[in-house]
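Request: Mind sharing a record?
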Amino acid sequence: MRSKEVIVLRSLWLFPGQGGQKAGMLKNVDSELKDQVEKWTKVKLLDTQEGYQDSVQIQLSILLLQIDQIEQLKKLHWQPTLVAGHSLGVFAAAYAAEVIEKKDLFRLVALRAKLMQQSYPEGYGMGVVVGLSRLEAKKLAEQVFTESDPVYLSNQNSELQNTFSGKITAIKKVLALAKDNGASKAKLLRVPNPSHSPLMKKAAEQLNQFIGQLKLHQPNCIYLANYNGHAVRNLKEVVFDLGNNLVYPVLWETMMQIALEYQPTVSCEFSPGSAFTKLLKAKTDQLHMVTLSQISIDDADYLFNKWEK
């Protein structure tokens, strides 16, 4: 029988944001936890294809799925060495680092989702370009940008994959230019607001006001911040990242470069999806990798024990 003491692999826990949600993904989630979340947020989680057309449903459901998985792993005495969340994923990352209490976490993300919905009802969104460097992508945004037709370079998902946020008309101009400049892929994303850009400043201000009322704790592991890609250990920088997440680009490529400098032995990508494990595989073959959307918690526990030995 395994010891009850906390066992720590040099582990990197990865938390994706929106995009991988699908009907039925909550079927194995703890029903008591789901009931608690619905009570705290006053939102009935539908877990249906129709429900996942709504940003509040998407964000709360993904967060619930990730928190359930975190709690299952921690009951088995596993703890992260580093945590990294992409966009929405920063909130599960902060919970894994024991920065925020569960009830406050869900109330915060419910507010975030509602503010995002209300900010830009129509005409704004995001696009993605693959095959151009970040510098090349930045020049395209600067070329198109006007005060009446704004567009910003936003997330850095990998070395040659960047997103743009702003007015749809401006994003379409950038995508056309990107294709003319040799991009292998340039398309609009199914995101109904200009996340991770200065256009979300008002929403960020309201989030920061809410966060200022919460009792938060120093992270118990290394937290990789979206806004600058750096590894941080102090509460002030984690709080800044959570509160201003919607205004700053997610510098995921930088986050992963820095994470690898800490020489983790295993990565664990939480549900839903496996996109970040695929990106990590392109960067290193020195890591054991687990994706919880593809294997059970029991299987993950077995592998962690095997690799710990």
Notes: Strands lie at 11-15, 82-85, 124-130, 151-158, 161-167, 185-188, 222-224, 231-232, 266-269, 288-291. The first helix runs from residue 31 to 41.
